[in-house]
Design goal:
Blueprint: H1 18-22, H2 28-45, H3 67-79, H4 84-105, H5 110-134, H6 141-155, H7 160-188, H8 200-206, H9 213-234, H10 237-250, H11 261-286, H12 300-329, H13 335-345, H14 347-362, H15 375-399, H16 404-414
Length: 420
């Protein structure tokens, strides 16, 4: 079988409108997962603003703090760091295939759909550039735009087997890199530690300590370009997650979670156990429980992405199971689920809003709270920011309005046909 994507017998280019991509009820699981994911992103990003603290060679988290700070550091390293962006990548890739297949189901021309997707991903790169230049160097919108641009062209119409083979090969390479780094770190631990020097992570964190906002623009863009290429492609995590998402979306794994409950259960259990297990080892080293020298802690820069990939996929599967359980209760959902899914439906707006709120509060060119907060304070601020976006998205949901950034991206991709 050449492809799992249905092709209409009589394509009609005029059918390519935004409604072609949104007609029908939305699957609960992806929106629910995106909504919670935005909370995890806030928790993962705020430690980068703590520019007055010292860091290790393997983590941006402070190397000291109160007992509560250390507990928060342990929890975030174990369950959040390197686990969120694979989750985001999977949901992003899943959404690409959802949009493509819905368009074809309504008789749209496949080439016209791919052109729209191409414009969408190019504009994502542009939005990411502006986001990094103005506020947040760790922008991921541009990285996903790059991946979407390449993978839509290279894999959208490939066979299921091709997707799984590529995902398997890339996972093998990532596993090999993590294994080699682990072995190398054992030998490196026998050597005397090098002279103290500021590491790459410390340099990135210090960008938020620049007091003159115009002077911070170029350093932020330098970091963004690095993340665009390394995190977006070379780390292999996002490509692997996107390939698996393409396959899962074709089989409607999150659209029909009850039908795929056994698969989702297996992925959730294995993924979260591996993800938390690998993250826990790093967390124990960071808080000083495991006697792993800091000068070889760079090994976690390879093991964390690998175990984080498992953890991110486990989280997605878990939300698929939650959605299946909610569906068994009936067609209506409670107010909490409604509010969280409202954030998921407006994920781009909620994501950018985090930077609009956090950067002026925490950066040195703003109020400079990043110089006085510890890990616990930063986590509390992250939760507060997410609750603000939750409130805003809930109000928009009640009024039947899109998020402003989501509306803009839609308008840029479709032109005037995007409507409101």
């Amino acid at each position: 079988m050449a492809t799992q994507t249905p092709t209409p017998s009589t394509p009609t280019p005029s059918a390519l409108t935004p409604s072609a991509l949104t007609t029908g009820s939305r699957a609960l699981a992806p929106d629910l997962a995106r909504g919670v994911m935005l909370l995890l992103i806030a928790l993962a990003n705020t430690p980068w603003y703590l520019y007055a603290t010292t860091t290790s060679n393997s983590s941006i988290h402070p190397t000291d703090g109160s007992t509560l700070d250390r507990v928060v550091q342990f929890a975030i390293i174990t369950t959040v760091d390197s686990r969120v962006y694979p989750m985001f990548a999977f949901l992003f890739g899943y959404g690409i295939v959802q949009m493509y297949q819905r368009s074809l189901d309504r008789g749209a021309d496949p080439q016209a759909v791919r052109r729209v997707l191409r414009r969408r991903h190019l504009w994502m790169i542009a939005i990411g550039f502006l986001h990094a230049a103005l506020l947040w160097m760790g922008d991921i919108v541009g990285a996903y735009g790059i991946v979407g641009l390449i993978f839509t062209a290279a894999f959208l119409q490939r066979r299921d087997r091709t997707l799984l083979v590529w995902a398997g090969v890339l996972t093998g390479l990532l596993t090999l890199a993590a294994t080699a780094a682990t072995v190398g770190s054992v030998f490196a631990a026998q050597a005397p530690p090098p002279a103290e020097a500021d590491g790459f992570l410390a340099w990135i964190k210090d960008i938020n300590g620049i007091e003159f906002w115009p002077a911070s623009i170029l350093p932020r863009l330098m970091v963004w370009v690095f993340l665009l290429t390394f995190q977006g492609l070379l780390s292999l995590v996002i490509p692997i997650a996107a390939l698996l998402a393409f396959w899962a979306a074709r089989h409607r794994v999150l659209d029909e979670p009850e039908r795929h409950r056994r698969l989702l259960t297996t992925v959730a259990v294995v993924g979260i156990v591996v993800g938390w297990g690998g993250g826990g080892v790093h967390a124990l080293q960071h808080v000083g429980v495991l006697p792993i020298p800091d000068h070889v802690s760079w090994v976690f820069s390879t093991t964390q992405p690998l175990t984080g990939l498992f953890g991110g996929l486990g989280y997605v599967a878990l939300f698929g199971l939650v959605a299946a359980a909610l569906a068994r209760r009936g067609p209506t959902v409670g107010p909490v689920t409604t509010a969280v899914t409202a954030v998921g439906k407006r994920s781009l707006s909620a994501y950018l809003a985090q930077s609009v709120l956090c950067a002026p509060l925490l950066s040195a060119w703003g109020l400079g709270l990043g110089a006085v907060l510890g890990s616990a304070g930063a986590a509390a601020l992250a939760i507060g920011v997410w609750l603000v976006t939750l409130t805003g998205c809930s109000l928009l949901e009640r009024r039947g309005r899109r998020g402003p950034a989501d509306w803009l991206l839609r308008r840029l991709a479709y032109g005037r046909s995007a409507g409101s």
